[in-house]
Amino acid sequence: MNENITVSRDGGIVTVVLDRPAKLNALTHAMWQALGDAIRTLSADDGIRCIVLRGAGEKAFSPGNDIAEFATARSNKAQAIEYGRAMHETAAALEACPHPLVAQIHGICVGGGLEIAALCDLRICGTGSRFGVPIKNLGLVMAYSEIGSLISLAGEAVAMEILLEGRVFEAKEAFEKGLVTRVVPDDQVEKEARETAQRIADGAPLVARWHKKFARRLRDPKPLSAAEYDEGFACFGTEDFQIGYKAFLAKAKPAFKGK
């Protein structure tokens, strides 16, 4: 594990940290690789109920890729293809992660940082957070596999506005554009993200995974197969369904098992 990607666990909630605060959590090639490795490992752990993804400190989630690394690791097309492979494999890991992902956003969240946040299921930020993708000023484009998450989240028109203008804008505008789920006072971001993760963790984990799977599948206009249609009722055969409805009738808190 790269020292700039740290993972901690509290019960069913895992926190993954982009841990390079001296550089505002700017991403390196090695960090992209390590983040992808961490997400793939966590995805295989059925005991996890929710993953919180954040940057170290409260100044930034991430400003994107470390430009200082470009001269040695991304200075030509061949290097960029290799660098891009690490980014795209990590994006694919985030997209495929079966567990709910909550982005805890403090401060700056631009470029590659916004790409990562966009791949989470929920995004909670502070009023002082800033967003944008000002890569036009570097002569860079978002590749196909990168731009897709932004379009999926905010729509093509908003994505084009963000990319063509390259502005960095405030949390209020980010919320209005659909880029973030919730905006809270800066000193409440961690608390709100934790409480959100706990609400998710308290629910039936199989249900959360099914909801993620169904939402992804519905992006494809192809008609559902008979097996896919039937899967929408598979929850009725789980132990968690028995636990859930019986707890409701008994006015008790359910203790789901993920079975």
Description of the molecule:
The chain is an alpha/beta fold and 259 residues long. The protein has 2 domains: 5-200, Alpha-Beta Complex (2-enoyl-CoA Hydratase, Chain A, domain 1), CATH 3.90.226; 204-249, no CATH class. The chain contains 11 helices and 10 strands. It has helices spanning 29-43, 70-73, 77-96, 112-118, 144-154, 156-165, 171-176, 189-202, 205-217, 226-231, 239-249; strands at 5-10, 13-18, 50-55, 60-62, 101-105, 108-110, 122-126, 130-132, 168-170, 182-184. Strands 1-2-3-5-7-10 form a 6-stranded mixed beta sheet, sandwiched between helices. Strands 4-6-8-9 form a 4-stranded mixed beta sheet. Helix 1 (29-43) packs parallel to helix 3 and helix 5 crosses helix 6. The longest helix is centred in the middle third of the chain and has 20 residues, at 77-96. The radius of gyration is 19 Å and the shape is globular. It starts with a strand and ends in a 10-residue tail after the last helix. The model has no long low-confidence stretch (mean pLDDT 94).
Task: Show the helix and strand layout.
Elements: E1 5-10, E2 13-18, H1 29-43, E3 50-55, E4 60-62, H2 70-73, H3 77-96, E5 101-105, E6 108-110, H4 112-118, E7 122-126, E8 130-132, H5 144-154, H6 156-165, E9 168-170, H7 171-176, E10 182-184, H8 189-202, H9 205-217, H10 226-231, H11 239-249
Parallel strand pairs: 2-3, 3-5, 4-6, 5-7, 6-8, 7-10
Antiparallel strand pairs: 1-2, 8-9
Helix pairs in contact: 1-3, 5-6
